[in-house]
Amino acid sequence: MRIIQVSDASAGAQRAFEIYETALAQGIKVMGLATGATPIALYDHFVASALDFSNITAVNLDEYLGLTSQDPQSYHYFMQQHLFNQKPFKQTFIPDGASSDGQQAARAYDKILAQNPIDIQLLGLGRNGHIGFNEPGTPFDATTHLVNLTPSTIAANARFFDEPAAVPTQAISMGIASVMSAKKILLMAFGEEKATAVAATVNGPVTTDVPASVLQTHPDVTIIIDDAAASKL
Known about the structure:
Catalyzes the reversible isomerization-deamination of glucosamine 6-phosphate (GlcN6P) to form fructose 6-phosphate (Fru6P) and ammonium ion. This protein has 233 residues and is an alpha/beta fold. The chain has helices at residues 9-25, 40-48, 75-84, 102-115, 151-157, 176-180, 195-203, and strands at 2-6, 30-33, 57-60, 62-64, 91-93, 120-123, 145-148, 170-173, 184-189, 221-226.
């Protein structure tokens, strides 16, 4: 693992942008993307830049089950608002959260991933060590699958919804094996609330109790953290 420690999230987004700038210059074709608060500043850099994504395929990590792509809380909508509307890609893929059969949607997404091997996968980090929606206990060999979200993840997502009852309890997520298939992985984590998960990811045992700990076994991982997130290393 390569650890890049910065003063704050803004500096982290700048370092991440520079990594992508280099990767695009080197000819990558497929980017694995993430949602949530962490990558927004990076996407702002993408939008403000002269980078050309018209020959790039984007595959997103996950999507809530039960939300249409037009729902403002869906990850489809998030990606359109923060990146895709401003920066056209060759093609973009996100799991079908509106599907009436989440298992079938997961299998269909695995076929997409097989056809579009990921060059660089962007990850955030959950407070419980999850990556994508791969919650603690997820087998390391899991491919795209239907996830029952844990109470802590549902609680963390509740701030985005008008009422707790509206928060989805299931999602379709790339599996840990899907993430680990990427040639390069870039994880970003900022804030003191991520410090325990960062320490377990970097220095803890490799265990399904902390899904992100599996990244210790990947040959090319870069982790960008701020001083607060690094406080327990």
